[in-house]
Request: fold
Amino acid sequence: MRRHYDRIHAVCRRIAGGSRDADDACQEALIKIVRNLPRFDGRSSFGTWAYRIATNASLDELRKRERRPKLDRDDNTIDRADDRAAQRVDHVGDRLVLDAALAELPDDLRAAVVLRDVANLDYSEIAQVLEVPVGTVKSRISRGRAALATRLRLDLDLPISPEIGNQSDPGERPTDLT
Reply:
């Protein structure tokens, strides 16, 4: 469990959004993992099985959130005392912008993007976690990334680096590599 905790929490945080909801989802997921450990049959890797539970717990937390009353808060009062603090605030701001953009995605797209880009699962593992075909996983990741790029106002004409796992359509690749 210690080996998987950070990634399980990261998946919960990105799917469920806020840290309180992510903490609740992660705690619920860990409890379910421990309780259901005797039922783990080894048909998939332990990590894939654990991410399935974490994804479900996060989606459950989103459903609970919709039933809770919303509070108005004004968190725009940040004092930039020094350069380091300013850099940390900027970094946190970037994360908040990304988290807000992720929160705007439909749950199915968000889960697929998070499992690929945060948990680094391959397409077949994501298909197992979400219980959908691999083609559906690829489509959801593609649509989710495109929606994120639009929300974040990224230049869609720039090539996306292969480190984040983007797989372009072979028909769009140049035939001459010179």
Summary: Residues 2-68+89-156 form a domain with the Arc Repressor Mutant, subunit A fold (CATH 1.10.10.10).
